[in-house]
């Protein structure tokens, strides 16, 4: 350092001076010593500093002692080298005192700064703690609000659940009603189907009956049947029988086959077989003849496979003439056997 | 950062030096006795001051002490006992000065850093305090 370098230079020059002084061999008393003056001025400066006197009192005292030794050496007239040496030691002791004071002051500053830091850290921590407490309080309030909201939300949810439940009940009822309606619909559909089927049956029946009526009409037509108040009447003419006989002739036999087929075709039908004569001959013989001719037709039909219980035969003699007995043509028309088919449902349709 | 008083340090260094002093005494000396003890004390003081910290914080002061110790050794070698004693004593003083200067520099630096840290913390608090 600069000061040290100066000291070093000074020291060397002082040594040279000392050597010269030694050569002079105590002949003269040295007036002043530059090194001693320097040491003294440095000591005075250090002693003027409160920091040094308070913080490095021991070191300053030692510097004072060193300075006193140097002064004593100077006073005693010791060699310049010796005075320089002791002055140098005193100067260095002053430097030690000053550095010691500086160190201790700096240490005090460090310590107080550390204490201040601790204080400030405490303040900071207190602030942080307060802030944390506030945050905690805020958070707790927030939690309370959240809890309230949660509670109300749960109530709302409960209401919603109730609504849902009642809605489900309602739905269930609706579903039941729907099921009932569907069943009812199904039943109606079944009825409709049945009705439709029935209608079809009816139509089929009607169609069948129409067909039967047409067929019957055709058969009746073939038998030369005519519609009367008593029913359909088929007249078997006089020509079919020999005069005064009840036996059927050839043409009459074919007509009988048609009648037997007709009765077999319509097994529910019954027929009344009625015999008539003209007014020729006695009334009793005519009655007998009409009886016999009616019976002959009935026997013939039974013989052709028609059950007898569906047939009745009766003679009416000269009664119910269909024409005048005064002419031969009239009398021929009156000699006859009529088959009267009892009227049945559907016969009304016949023309 | 307490350190033993300088007086104690001198005593310790002196005790430590006595062993090597004995060896030097054995070699003997004709007229003026060689400053064996002072040299040993100086050796110990310079060695003690020769730390990395002192070399960094007070290199000139330490260099002066080292140089002066070498001169003292040279004086011993030259048979100049009086000069050797003075140089040894000065080397001891220089070593102590170097040591104390380094300590002062370090302490000052530490104080500055500590104050800086406190200032930073104070600013931080002031930043946080206003609301």
Quantity of strands of chain B, as a count:
0
The major sheet of chain A is characterized as: 5 strands, mixed
Q: Average pLDDT of chain A, to the nearest integer?
A: 81
End-to-end Cα distance of chain B: 41 Å
* Number of helical stretches of at least 4 residues of chain B: 5
> Rg of chain B to the nearest angstrom?
21 Å
Provide the structure class of chain A.
Answer: alpha+beta
Provide the gyration radius of chain A in Å: 84 Å
Strand content of chain A: 5-15%
- Give the helix tally of chain A: 8
Low-pLDDT segments, ≥5 res of chain A = none
* Helix-strand sequence of chain A: HHHHHEEHEHEHE
Structure characterization notes:
The complex is a heterodimer of chains A (351) and B (131). Chain A is α+β, with helices and mostly antiparallel strands. Chain A is built from eight helices and five strands, in the order αααααββαβαβαβ. Chain A has a five-stranded mixed β-sheet with strand order 1-2-5-3-4. In chain A, a hairpin with a 2-residue loop joins strand 1 and strand 2. Chain A is rod-shaped and about 230 Å long. The mean pLDDT of chain A is 81. With 131 residues, chain B is an all-alpha fold. Chain B is rod-shaped.
Q: Main traits of this protein?
A:
heterodimer; A: alpha+beta; 5-stranded mixed sheet; B: mainly alpha; 0% strand
Please render the helix and strand layout as text.
The complex is a heterodimer of chains A (351) and B (131).
Chain A: H1 2-24, H2 34-47, H3 50-55, H4 57-75, H5 80-222, E1 226-228, E2 231-237, H6 250-265, E3 271-276, H7 283-303, E4 311-315, H8 328-334, E5 336-341
Parallel strand pairs in A: 3-4
Antiparallel strand pairs in A: 1-2, 2-5, 3-5
Chain B: H1 6-27, H2 36-49, H3 52-57, H4 59-78, H5 81-128
């Amino acid at each position: 350092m600069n000061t040290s370098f100066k000291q070093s230079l000074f020291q060397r020059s002082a040594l040279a001076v000392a050597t010269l002084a030694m050569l002079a061999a105590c002949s003269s008393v040295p007036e002043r010593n530059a090194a001693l003056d320097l040491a003294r001025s440095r000591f005075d400066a250090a002693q003027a500093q409160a920091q040094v006197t308070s913080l490095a009192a021991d070191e300053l005292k030692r510097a004072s002692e060193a300075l006193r030794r140097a002064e004593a050496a100077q006073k005693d007239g010791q060699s310049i080298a010796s005075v320089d040496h002791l002055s140098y030691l005193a100067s260095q002791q002053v430097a030690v005192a000053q550095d010691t004071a500086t160190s201790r002051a700096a240490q005090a500053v460090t310590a107080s700064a550390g204490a201040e830091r601790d204080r400030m850290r405490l303040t900071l921590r207190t602030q942080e703690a307060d802030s944390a407490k506030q945050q905690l309080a805020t958070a707790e309030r927030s939690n309370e609000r959240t809890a309230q909201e949660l509670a109300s939300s749960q109530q709302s949810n409960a209401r919603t659940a109730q609504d849902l439940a009642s809605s489900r009940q309602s739905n269930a009822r609706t579903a039941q009603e729907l099921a009932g309606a569907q069943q009812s619909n199904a039943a109606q559909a079944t009825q409709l189907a049945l009705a439709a089927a029935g209608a079809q049956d009816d139509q089929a029946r009607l169609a069948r009956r129409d067909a039967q009526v047409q067929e019957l009409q055709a058969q009746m037509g073939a038998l030369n049947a005519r519609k009367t108040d008593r029913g359909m009447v088929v007249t078997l003419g006089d020509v079919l029988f020999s005069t005064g006989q009840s036996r059927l002739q050839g043409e009459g036999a074919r007509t009988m086959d048609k009648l037997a087929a007709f009765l077999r075709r319509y097994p529910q039908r019954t027929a009344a077989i009625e015999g008539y004569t003209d007014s020729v001959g006695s009334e009793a013989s005519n009655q007998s003849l009409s009886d016999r001719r009616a019976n002959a037709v009935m026997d013939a039909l039974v013989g052709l496979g028609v059950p007898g219980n569906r047939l009745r035969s009766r003679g009416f003699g000269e009664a119910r003439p269909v024409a005048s007995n005064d002419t031969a043509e009239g009398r021929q028309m009156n000699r006859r056997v009529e088959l009267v088919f009892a009227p049945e449902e559907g016969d009304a349709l016949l023309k | 950062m307490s350190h033993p008083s300088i007086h104690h340090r001198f005593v310790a260094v002196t005790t430590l030096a006595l062993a090597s002093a004995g060896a030097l005494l054995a070699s003997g000396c004709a007229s003026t006795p060689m400053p064996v003890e002072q040299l040993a004390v100086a050796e110990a003081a310079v060695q003690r001051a020769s730390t990395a910290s002192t070399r960094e914080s007070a290199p000139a002061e330490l260099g002066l002490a080292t140089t002066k110790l070498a001169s003292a050794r040279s004086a011993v070698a030259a048979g100049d006992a009086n000069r050797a004693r003075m140089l040894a004593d000065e080397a001891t003083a220089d070593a102590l000065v170097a040591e104390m200067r380094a300590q002062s520099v370090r302490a000052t630096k530490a104080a500055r850093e500590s104050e800086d840290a406190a200032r930073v913390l104070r600013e931080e608090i002031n930043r946080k305090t206003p609301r």
